[in-house]
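Lab meeting notes turned into a lecture example. A postdoc, R.K., suggested we walk through two folding results consecutively so the class can see how the record format repeats. The first protein's sequence and structure tokens come next.
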Amino acid sequence: QVQLVESGGGLVQAGGSLRLSCTASGRTFATFAMRWFRQAPGKERALVASMNSGTSTYYADSVKGRFTISRDNAKNTVYLQMNSLKPEDTAVYYCNAVSSSFRNIYWGQGTQVTVSS
């Protein structure tokens, strides 16, 4: 079983930055693909960024050039650096881990990000 704990959310003005962190328990973190999702009020949860067990990354069009996903396997942690934040980035952000076999998927509890205009 893997537990994911997010941190780093908060209230920021438009144009500001935040860095989210997600720390995983367990010894197989390096083999997991890690993803960040977000869910705004009244909307479906959507993929924001992902990073496989190597260095390949994916970004939603809405965050390209502003957000950066990275991971530190020695710390069992994945990060989401968010720059040039916009009010439309306001959402609960969730960390997600997928095992290499795709048989196990884990979610964090979510962290609120609010961007004021």
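The second example is placed directly after the first for contrast:
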Amino acid sequence: VQLQASGGGLVQAGGSLRLTCQASGVIFSRYTMSWYRQAPGKQRELVATISSGGSTNYADSVKGRFTISRDTLKNTVYLQMNSLNPEDTAVYYCKGVNTWSKSVYWGQGTLVTVSS
């Protein structure tokens, strides 16, 4: 099982980025997928979750700005991030949880830096 996150980079405040997490070696439809982030000196926090059925949940800090989505045919989950601000600067990680076995897998992280 491998989760490959990409799409991070440097963006100015108010800008947008789309993160991608490509899963391989999994039956993707069995997985609840999430994005987490960890800012320097802070604990990792949940950003957004999407269930195998497409239900979504967001941290209050990103509601209305971020959108999580998934493409089951491509084994991919996305995080569209709009209206970025410097407080969104962090390493973003994707996480997959197999709803059958409860196994948990993490991607390697992708750095998002938002300049003011």
